[in-house]
Design goal:
Layout lengths: L1 H15 L6 E2 L5 E7 L3 E7 L4 E7 L15 E7 L4 E7 L4 H8 L5 H19 L8
Antiparallel strand pairs: 1-2, 2-3, 3-4, 4-5, 5-6
Helix pairs in contact: 2-3
Length: about 130
């Protein structure tokens, strides 16, 4: 049974995930895997000291939240071993400060590293996506 699950995961990874080393620098930092489109995207980002599994979601018209989030917000979620943490981030504010508020569970160095990976790799890639890309 376990072998079947492993094989299925391999097939799904080949079909839906672009990578490995989709957009990596010489020092092996950058986007290792990507899956999704501009409405919902998954990034596996390799930093110099951490690996981040980041989900980026564009709020939809029918998304209900505690408070109004406009078009200038994205939902950022980090996947850890057994949990997902994150929140809405305003793209019009200082992103490093927004990341510090959203990812308060991370160390300062990790937040800075995640911010650099977003700015230098994932942000550029994410905003070039078309809704049809998978």
């Amino acid at each position: 049974m376990l072998n079947k699950e492993i094989e299925i995961q391999k097939i799904l990874r080949k079909k839906f995930m672009k990578g490995p080393k989709l957009n990596m620098a010489e020092d092996s930092t950058g986007i290792n895997y990507f899956s999704g489109n501009n409405h919902s995207a998954y990034y596996e980002l390799y930093g110099s000291s951490s690996i981040f599994r980041l989900i980026v979601v564009e709020p939809s018209i029918n998304l209900f939240t505690e408070y109004y989030v406009g078009k200038d917000h994205l939902l950022f979620l980090l996947m850890d071993e057994e949990q997902v943490k994150g929140g809405f981030v305003s793209l019009k504010e200082d992103l490093l400060i927004e990341f510090k508020k959203t990812f308060a569970h991370l160390r300062e160095e990790q937040i800075i590293e995640l911010h650099e990976l977003w700015e230098n790799y994932a942000k550029i890639h994410y905003f070039q996506l078309s809704p049809k890309e998978i």
